[in-house]
């Protein structure tokens, strides 16, 4: 299942399992990530995402199943494989007393790549150039997270693992990182990452796996997941324009609620409902919201409101 048999696969997992006592953290996961793919692993807290990614990284060892990383098993550690992987974990370690620049130079030297150039490039990549001479221990949480990402990329790895890389970032820094990740993908790198930001996964990922209780419950492109879910469109009408009772009487409306100053009409027949609304009250102020990945996710993870 590895090497020449799957030359275009960055990762192949077959029936991978990992237990902690009675907890089945990873409970029989099989998946395949293509080279050059941007692959998202989504799921609620405790679903097993970190365990799964750390098995791929070789940081944890599966109880059973097969794992192939760029055609090689991740354990025992393979010194030829390690430089091809970039790893940012939720608990990234730092040289806290060094400056951001010194930290990156040290990481670069560990990988045997030119230190000054790697540090300059890494600092610019994640927007830390102006903080280059600040000690790591004095950086904010979000700045440290960006440094962790730059550290994972210092040696220009082929396959990049990022565990919630945008968790501590403000909206602007998040968007900046999106740009960096898109550029990496554009340069042919493979990215496997976890996030709780569903809008982000929808914007960035070629495919996502939704993991619940150690199992993959859905795996596809965001477009196919949303399109295949058969979820209703919401039509929002300002509350002063229509009563919920009147809205419920419109042909094609399946459900009506009131939220945020709007009467919310759920429908699978959007065009028919909009046309009826137009005849009844006109469409001024009316908004439509189609289902997105977050709606699919909430349904699959059982957290639908
Ligand atoms: N070292 C460990 N020892 C015992 N149990 C563990 C260990 N690591 C994880 N677990 C348990 O395994 C399950 C999966 O944890 P994991 O951290 O992989 O989930 P996650 O999806 O990454 O969660 P989060 O979104 O909160 O980061 C949880 O029930 C967790 O408590």
TrEMBL record:
It is found in: Cell membrane. It is a peripheral membrane protein. Belongs to the ABC transporter superfamily. This is ABC-2 type transport system ATP-binding protein. GO terms for biological process: response to antibiotic. InterPro entries: AAA+_ATPase, ABC_transporter-like_ATP-bd, ABC_transporter-like_CS, ABC_transporter_ATP-binding, P-loop_NTPase. The keyword Iron does not apply. CDD domains: ABC_DR_subfamily_A. Residues 11-238 form the ABC transporter domain. Its main location: membrane. Keywords: Antibiotic resistance, ATP-binding, Cell membrane, Membrane, Nucleotide-binding, Translocase, Transport. It comes from Actinokineospora auranticolor. GO terms for molecular function: ATP binding; ATP hydrolysis activity. One of its GO terms (cellular component) is plasma membrane. Gene3D superfamilies: P-loop containing nucleotide triphosphate hydrolases (3.40.50.300). It comes from the Bacteria. SUPFAM superfamilies: P-loop containing nucleoside triphosphate hydrolases. The lineage of its organism: Bacteria, Bacillati, Actinomycetota, Actinomycetes, Pseudonocardiales.
